[in-house]
Amino acid sequence: MMKKKIAILVYCLCLFVITAVRKPLMRAFAIMNDQNLKGMIIVIDAGHGGNDPGARISGQDEDEINLDLALKLKSILERAGANVEMTRTDDVDLSDAGAEHIKRSDMEHRAEILNHEDVTLFVSLHCNTSADQRCTGSQVYYRKEDEVSRKLADTIQDHLRVVTSSKYIPASGDFYLLNMTNTLGVLIETGFMTNPADLSKLQDEKYREDLAYAIYKGISEFLSVLV
Ligand SMILES: [Zn+2]
Question: For the structural domain made of 34-224, what CATH number should be given?
């Protein structure tokens, strides 16, 4: 009787361990064996920071979520062999000291980094807000009439859809950063801070890890046609 109990206990323990490590192990294996990103130069733009916290909902600043997600994505992309540049790695903005228009100065410096000729592609990370609290899920935006960036938006959205259950499809967006750049790249709204369920997920470390992995998979799939 005692032996049976121990056997059940060991079985449950094994099952728990297998479930807990399976996903990270499978991901680590996929990242390690990825040939699509080798030598690519990818810029990650963590939206807002410093003087500009972005959206602020229920005490949560958007720039913190964007930065943590950006750092998680950086780690994955580097493990896959990409050269990663960040517009910021801390709680700062990029405006010149004493600039009259802080936001404009900040955006100009970000655009300078993204427009560098060596850049393969960029992703700018943000969180969405809406007057309608029911709005939920991620949406990827691309530059108007930029068909290649639209394809990148498609593959990233496909992978994010699995994580965020988003019903959105990629859209061309009239965003300052997209209008100021000419490099291949997209702006990702990872979820709605105004939706309580989205906000609580965005605040969850494991969920942000899933988002980062989904964005990486989207980039990798897009690049797979080039290598
Ligand atoms: Zn934002």
Answer: 3.40.630.40
Residue 158 CA to residue 170 CA, distance in Å, equals: 9
Separation of CA 70 and ligand 1 centre (Å): 13
Around ion ligand 1, which residues have CB less than 5 A away? 47, 54, 126
Contact 199, 58 (CB under 8 A): yes
What is the end-to-end Cα distance of the chain in Å, rounded?
59
Residue 87's contacts (CB-CB under 8 Å, 6 or more residues apart) are 43, 44, 45, 46, 94, 109, 110, 113, 114
The pLDDT tens digits for 122-181 are: 999 999 999 999 999 999 999 999 999 999 999 999 999 999 999 999 999 889 999 999
Query: Residue 41's closest CA among 183, 168, 210, 143?
Result: 183
Question: How far, in Å, from the CA of 20 to the mean position of ligand 1?
Answer: 33
Question: Cβ atoms within 10 A of the Cβ of 43, count?
Answer: 24
Q: Which residue, 207, 185, 86, 202, is CA-closest to 141?
A: 185
What separation in Å is there between the alpha carbon of 55 and the centre of ligand 1? 6
CA of 128 relative to ligand 1 center, distance in Å: 7
Q: What is the Å distance from ligand 1's center to 23 Cα?
A: 30
Q: How far is the CA of 184 from the centre of ligand 1 (A)?
A: 19
